[in-house]
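Milestone 3.1: sequence recovery, worked example.
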């Protein structure tokens, strides 16, 4: 399955499952989105090691903030926003 097709599997229902504490749902999210999120972060930071660190931090932030996710059929936009904010926060430190 291509990355774009995988990202289509990331739905508000999956996000709700994560919010309800289902670890397998979180694993599904990570497995289906990490390449897209990594590439997005790398496009900002232009450093592979830093992009990997920020990718890890992004998923930690997603899990910590999942209760704040508002279902709007755009979970990837929400994840990309967290990733971008993590990257910008790194540069602002």
């Amino acid at each position: 399955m291509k990355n774009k097709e995988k990202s289509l599997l990331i739905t508000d229902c999956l996000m709700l499952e994560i919010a309800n504490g289902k670890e397998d749902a979180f694993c599904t999210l990570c497995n289906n989105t990490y390449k897209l999120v990594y590439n997005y972060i790398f496009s900002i930071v232009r450093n592979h090691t830093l992009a990997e660190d920020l990718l890890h931090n992004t998923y930690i932030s997603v899990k910590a903030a999942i209760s704040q996710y508002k279902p709007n059929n755009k979970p990837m936009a929400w994840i990309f926003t967290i990733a971008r904010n993590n990257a910008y926060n790194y540069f602002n430190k």
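Residues 4-8 have pLDDT under 50 and may be disordered. The radius of gyration is 13 Å.
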